[in-house]
Amino acid sequence: MTLTLRHTSVHLYIAAAAFGVLLFAMPAAPASPDPDPDIPSAQSTRQPQSIDEQLRLASDYLSGRGVPQDSSIAAYWYEKAAGAGDPQAQLQTGYLYESGIGVPRDPARAFHWYQLAAAAGLVRAKANLGVAYLWGTGVAKNEQMAYQLFNEAAASGSGLAAGYLGDMYRVGVGVGRDQAAAERWYLKGVKLHDPKSEFSMGSILYEGKDHAPDLRTATKLLRESASSGYVQAMHLLGFLLARNPGLAKSPEEAVSWLNDSASAGLWRSSLVLGILARDGNGVPADTRAAYYHFRVALLQGGEVARKYVKHDLQSLSGDLGPSQTSAIDAQAQQWYQLHQAVLEFKFKEGENETRFPAYALAVPATGVHAVQLMPTPVE
Question: Per UniProt, what is one GO molecular function of this protein (predicted)?
């Protein structure tokens, strides 16, 4: 059996700081905290004194850890810490205003906090200034300025900025298309442990369009990217290993990565899982499992997925009969209710969890270059 599904094509990705915070920023300019913030007060909560205590309490309310989840109270304490000068809190507060989490959407105030974060010298903020210029978000679109800021940020150690430069050269945005230059920037991002650069370089080596494919190096890069939580890398790695089982660390590795990316909302991963179960490729042939995965793919992908799964669903439902088909449909629907969002990253909890909770980063549903923080789906 030959798997022939194509993974998603290259795209200019969204700039995201650690902890899943999306950053856009205005050009550097003098700014000071708003003396009268309109974030709801939290007089009924305990009153932390230090910045660290404020961030811990904000994190607790944002994630619902030990207290009822309340994004408005979380936003209040993040802004308190931001006003006291904590750069990470300034970035977080800016994102809350940009995305409307816990507060009404207010791009102007979001830009205010991003300015302060950039003025604090955070390299991530400079990379996100480049994003603002690249997309024309809150500032006149200026691809050359974006290019300059990405260069400066990459020189200061931003793998994210290096990856953006790779994308600009690969697609030809703001610069002439230059595959060799794109790969040089991706490799710099790889050295800086940027998951998206790892994915981009891994996909290039897997496809082998511009030079001979290198599946072993591609597997290594995709495994590093997937281990950092990048969902597209999970899918492509699972797909690669399903086609090349000799590169897998275990017989279960391909299916494990595909399950992870399917749970993050990628219908193509569910489709591949259905094909594997249908054909008994790497897993025991299982009509029920195949129907289930195809059904999930349809729920996730809608009309786009229908043309890929329609024939199999009809054929397998005939084998299973109405009773089993209805039961599996209900099971798939129940699972889908817990995994409706399409995620770009699935962040792991770490040492900063008590200040900035580990949230998943969702792919935008519209052309607006902003995303939504959300708890990682419960498996």
Answer: beta-lactamase activity
Provide the total of helices (H) and of strands (E) in the chain, helices listed first.
Answer: 15, 5
CB-neighbour burial class of residue 215 (10 A; exposed 0-12, middle 13-18, buried 19+): middle
Listed by start position, the domains of the chain span: 16-254+346-372, 266-340
Closest CA to 272 of 259, 253, 288: 259
- Asked if pLDDT for residue 210 goes beyond 90, the answer is no
33 CB-side CA count, 13 A:
17
Its sign, for the CA torsion 295, 296, 297, 299, is positive
Q: What is the DSSP string of 34-91?
A: -SS--SPP-TTS----SHHHHHHHHHHHHHTSSS---HHHHHHHHHHHHHTT-HHHHH
Compute the distance between CA of residue 193 and CA of residue 228 in angstroms, rounded to an integer: 9
Separation between Cα atoms, residue 196 and residue 297, nearest integer Å: 25
Does pLDDT of 359 surpass 60?
A: no
* Mean pLDDT, rounded, for 241-250: 97
Q: How many CA within 13 A on the CB side of residue 101?
A: 27
According to CATH, the superfamily of the domain at 16-254+346-372 is Tetratricopeptide repeat domain (1.25.40.10)
pLDDT, position 347: 63
Mean pLDDT of 295-322: 97
Higher pLDDT, 351 or 126: 126
Q: Which two tokens stand for residue 345?
A: 């990253």
